Amino acid sequence: MSEGSASTGSASTGSAEQEILHRVEERVSWITLNRPEVSNAMTPAQRELVIALLEEASASLAIGAVVITATGKGFCTGADLRPGSRVPAPRPEGAPERAMWDVTRMIRSGAQRLIEAVLDCEKPVVAGVNGTAAGLGAHLAFACDLVVAADQARFIEVFVRRGIAPDAGGAYLLPRLVGLQAAKEMVFFGDDISAERAGRLGLVNRVVPAHELPSTLAEIAGRLASGPTKALGAAKWLLNRSLDSDRRTAFEEEAMVQELVTSTADMREGMAAFAERRSADFRGW
């Protein structure tokens, strides 16, 4: 993919070009889900494109932050499960419609890869939740580093309503964000969680009126994109790792990361700016 395609959408083929809008402006990669007619339920093609754009953002020195948002009244209501939304793999004659490990493979290669792409992105990722975020859509938001929600937004652990257990990393993310008891309440009942309550639970960083969402996202992402990109990426990695590490491992990784970031041009600029009592002009490397 090339950043030169940013003004016209994504660098993919097929309908995903229109279903995922993409642009890069002032070092911010804007990824916008664009299927408002189905509340941005996500197809496999869309999912693969979002993963590719996140990987592109990680590798690009021209990108300092990522925003994931959506058009219409819904952020993302989960995976698109409507008939015809998925192309089944060819089956030998007489084979069952679903064989053992099919579901495991689908989850691992699909929803989990998307959530991992957000968590592993080397740049800060901001979710701009404009409306309902349910199932995979809720977990896509929760995986982001910062979440800004319109006051009309809702978050729904919809899985129990369908008779299934949570996937897309939900059982991993929720207890780490809200604690075990609150996570169980959300998963067991599947109730709508308002943006205001999501803020109280710690799922959302900021709740704003819907008309202020674009400008708030631009302001937050702009601040991140103008920061020391490598240091921010290292901090994200350390913070995410800390949830699964023991103290000794966390301290060793902290020292190792500090060794790496002190060799960056942005560190030298930051120290010079401090000594000269001026604002730092970070470049992202």
Write the layout of secondary structure elements.
Blueprint: H1 16-19, E1 20-25, E2 28-33, H2 44-59, E3 65-70, E4 74-76, H3 102-109, H4 111-120, E5 125-129, E6 132-134, H5 136-143, E7 146-150, E8 154-156, H6 170-178, H7 180-189, E9 192-194, H8 195-201, E10 206-208, H9 213-225, H10 229-242, H11 247-261, H12 265-276
Parallel strand pairs: 2-3, 3-5, 4-6, 5-7, 6-8, 7-10
Antiparallel strand pairs: 1-2, 8-9
Describe the protein.
- By secondary structure, the protein is an alpha/beta fold.
- It has twelve helices and ten strands.
- The strands form two sheets. A six-stranded mixed β-sheet has the order 1-2-3-5-7-10, with helices on both faces. The protein has a four-stranded mixed β-sheet with strand order 4-6-8-9.
- The protein is globular and about 70 Å long.
- The two termini are 21 Å apart.
Properties at a glance:
285 residues, single chain, 15% strand, 2 domains, alpha/beta, 2-enoyl-CoA Hydratase, Chain A, domain 1
Short description:
By secondary structure, the chain is of the alpha/beta class. It is built from 12 helices and 10 strands. It folds into 2 domains: 3-88 and 95-225, 2-enoyl-CoA Hydratase, Chain A, domain 1 (Alpha-Beta Complex), CATH 3.90.226.10; 229-276.
State the separation between the terminal residues, measured CA to CA: 21 Å
Second rung of CATH, namely the architecture of the largest domain: Alpha-Beta Complex
**Can you list the strand order of the major beta sheet?**
1-2-3-5-7-10
Summarize the amount of helix as a percent range.
40-55%
Approximately what portion of the residues adopt beta-strand conformation? 15-25%
Shape descriptor: globular
